[in-house]
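Task: encode each sequence below as structure tokens.

Item 1
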Amino acid sequence: MVEVAVLLLAIPVLFALADWRRGLLLCVITAVLQDPIRKIAPDQPLVFTVFVGIVFAGACLGALVRGVPLVPSSVVGAYRQIAIPMRVLLLLIVLQAFNSLVRFYNPMLPLIGLMTYLLPLPSFVFAYQLVLRGGEACIRQFIWGYLVFTLVALTTVYMEYTGYDWSVLGQVGRGLLIFDEYTGKIIKPNSGIFRAAEIAAWHAATAGCFVLLLTTWRKINFRALLKAMIVITLLVGIAMLTGRRKAVVEVAVFASTYVILWIVFKRGSAKLGIALVVAALVGFGWLVAQLGDDPRHFDPDLAGYELYVERSKTAFADAPSRFVELGIAPIMWAYESFGLFGAGLGVGTQGTQHFGGGGDIAGPAEGGLGKVTLELGIPGLFVFGWLAISVFIHFWRIMRTASRISPRVARLSYALFSFLVANAAAFSVATQAYSDLFILLILSWTLGFLFAVPVLLEREVRARQPVIFEEYTPVFRPETV
């Protein structure tokens, strides 16, 4: 079975080599298919999880042979405020790879860790170069392609919940159950064709974010907003069936951040647009309000879908305590357990438990801050913060400039930035999904799209009168961006 799958994998790889611009769509198709194929393969081998990475590597090779630079310096080299902390972080990652190897004598730990930390570098550059050559159409094509295939895949989560007993449905490996402390009942997480409920929940939340992005990107009308509201509500409902509450919070953070950015940058000049967005979010806002009820008031006889809804209601009430317990407390645990410089690369990365590490070593460092501290030490946490602040300042300037030049591109930048913020919030308390190669690729592509926004703005500016071009050109110079 594995041999047949590898032969089939050669098809998207060859297509990616021949036409690297189709690489993102080919990765989407591969990622959707690799999990169900793995489930029907004998012993469900782990190698299937890297298939999407192999297809992306083929696209990168196809781009390189055509002279497309895929080094980070081609994007951020001119911006010292980003390039310097990025170089320091790369040096620290290499040093921590040696730390992990020396400490545990397990080469798979640093290898998997290196893949997790370094994969975003060529992938965000790849997305930037794609937009540089293809414009907004490339972003739209990817998002539409992702939604078409992912929405179909997400329907299988509901199918599993309703009792379909197909071999491609359910979690890979031993099935896990969730004990809900508020209802006192056992909840079965549903994953559909995805290999785990955590992955299915992430894609349900991401699809909801992308639906709102597409709806508000160009012309805004009530009919489109109403349709989007319905689709987003259905996606949130599917996310509840996974038993993973953070997916609901992720959509809420995305929507609220998006609206806040719109108000901040377009105050006074886009009141109608803001009103339309608020109207589109009324339904979702009502849902969030319901989820914020006191989680301790529950019906002990709950059954079926109501049980999943009741569990989701605890998401917002538990958010502060979970941030402290899973976001802040693991930092001190990692420091007390492994010292100032941590345990080394790959120790807290999902997947390394299959090679004698990871899960047994990581302990309670489930949150992103704890994972970074565990693998890169306290210095790594500070360097990560330095880089994050530098990138935030850069993106803020991009969004501010976009709001002055093009409302359409500005809305795109707000949505892309909000998506990254929502995932940063989710990552801070839970890292399981963020070791998945496809999820890492999507996040790094989003990062590349946002870095490419100035390219889209300059194209619009060049199409206008020279006077306008002279007015805005200095914004894009490295020393000022």
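Item 2
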Amino acid sequence: MVGDVSSIQGVDALAGELIERVEHIDVLVNNAGYMGSVLGYSKDQVETHFAVNVLAPCRLTRALLPALKAAGNARVLNITGGDKPAAIDADNLQAEKGFRGLMTYTHSKSAMEAMSMALSEELEREGVTVNVLFPGRASTVMTRSLSLSALPGLMKLMYPLFRLLFAKDEGKSAAKAA
């Protein structure tokens, strides 16, 4: 099933279609991610990293809660990425203090991790377990799309290393991460 998780309407449509097709969901894997090189906004006027990496997994999980509860002992796996978790700046959730490419992506994934921890506490009483997974770095379409402009400051000097690290490898690093 294909869905657009960059907008509230897209997430709701995906959830609605899933709920129509299945009675229960044993495992929900929120693995969609967005890493852009320029500041952008969703149809809902939410910064795109925050919309896809934080709001979408939260909204989709909540919308699918009836099917998750029906499974009994369901599990939600929220996949993270980027660098090590960054401190969350509540005044900069949508790059209000400036867009910084890879750092904006990492910040949004840290916010997703925090959201997941709160959601875990909330859904535990519903019999749904929420986990965050960091599979490791892998060469994917997204990581290979990392551009020089997405790197802040002195990290630009490391761009050739990033290109080597995320060179196309016929899916070997992604399989290893999985």
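Check on item 2: The chain has a mean pLDDT of 88. The first strand starts at residue 27 and ends at 30.
End of task.
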